Amino acid sequence: MNLSVTWAEAWIRQCVDVIADHRVELITLDRDIGDGDHGENMDRGFQAVLGKLDTLPAESVPGDVLKLVATTLISTVGGAAGPLYGTAFLKAAVAVAGKPDLDGAAVVALLTAARDGIVLRGKAESGDKTMVDAWTPAVDAAAAAERAGATPVAILVEAADAAEAGAVATEPLVARKGRASYLGERAIGHRDPGAQSSALLLRAAAETAERVADE
Amino acid sequence: MKKLVNDPKNVVDEAVAGFAAAHGDIVRVSSDPTFIVRADAPVTGKVGLVSGGGSGHEPMHGGFVGVGMLDAAVPGAVFTSPTPDPILAATQAVNGGAGVLHIVKNYTGDVLNFETAADLALADGIEVRTVIVNDDVAVKDSLYTAGRRGVAGTVLVEKIAGAAAERGDDLAAVAAVAEKVIGQVRTMGVALTPCVVPHAGEPSFTLAEDEIEIGIGIHGEPGRERIKLEPADAIVDRLLGPILEDIPFVSGDSVLLLVNGMGGTPQIELYIVFRRAAEVLAAKGITVTRTLVGNFTTSLEMQGMSITVLKLDDELTALWDAPVQTAALRWGR
Q: What is the pTM of this model?
């Protein structure tokens, strides 16, 4: 079953809840190796998104939802995460622009464009201990699932699993980008907060897709 | 942790409102989006200077808005870069037709948000140049990190580039003066205690009673090493060594020496630091011709300080001496 605007909106509403629920966790992770503002900034951004979702026109498609998220996050999050997530959602919106519903290939295109946007803005590579370390495994897993003929829902589940594993896998890394890079070896043993928030957002995508498919 | 705040969410808005009330002769404040501009902005025909970044570093940057320095400052949430919207609005507000210079400290969030704002301003037909300040020598290279950070040397960039804009230099010339300062200024800092971000309510890192962090950025984030507390002179030597080796500064140089408090260190200790730094420079045949001591680039209530050395020539000295009228720096008028 393809994913419609119902899923896109449900996904973003769940992002709002998940980020609020994990606000303190993200602050704590960021305090360990950054400046402790990631949870606060993401929560402020997604609360602003929540206020704007109701303004979406009735005939909106998934790309419109993603574009609204992009512009709102860019305007409200600040820090590095605002431009990075904003660019991710903007590129994802462009990748699926105009499509009323998303098949497996479109889901992979959405995820790939989001990851490419983060890389374009932040110039991080895999292994730099950033959100890229959650997104790239997610994109790879999604593409492999799509090639194997998986449904859009199953593709998102594979992506979420890979993103979570990728976030955990940032723990032994030394950071080469962002605030944590100044810690050198002392960043070892700490999970990257951006990778963790990315994993949370992708899990929300998978869970809402499963829920929408069941309805 | 005790703080003089109301709702932590309103810290920046209330501080900016108070700043506007206190310094209405120098600045005007926009509240939505939040930015601070000099009272007579935009100045027709003058290059506009915009800086900004997370709050918590006061008087940076709002305290440097006024005649002879910045045209606008854009405060973000505490320790969080402002978003592109207020940066764009401030850029528009100070555009006097001669273009706008963005002065950005090299922190990932600041760079990304200013970059986005500059793109939007260009789309609006405003010519924007950007300089990235990276005076912190504690971070060794950019291959394995986000690069050297912009710290207290930013104050000197803003003062000197501001003077160049005030005397009528065009955008390329003001940017060139700013780049010249960036090329010749070096800083290193130390933290004795952590600081507490109001909405977090807990220290952003921990230091044992007898530990200090050498090579901090302006949020207390580490750069070099954590060591046991030492006498002031030994700490000064640890900071000044890497600074002087870096350009390098050599015998015969004239310099500006800035000893900057991080917010929680009393002036009496800053002068103990200044005394030692001046001694070390004199012993190396380096002449301190201009000085600045005080809290200019802070980290909330953190105890600690940074030492900044800027190599001066006649042009930079004249621009430093030029009149300035801001909340935090004022001379010559």
A: 0.88
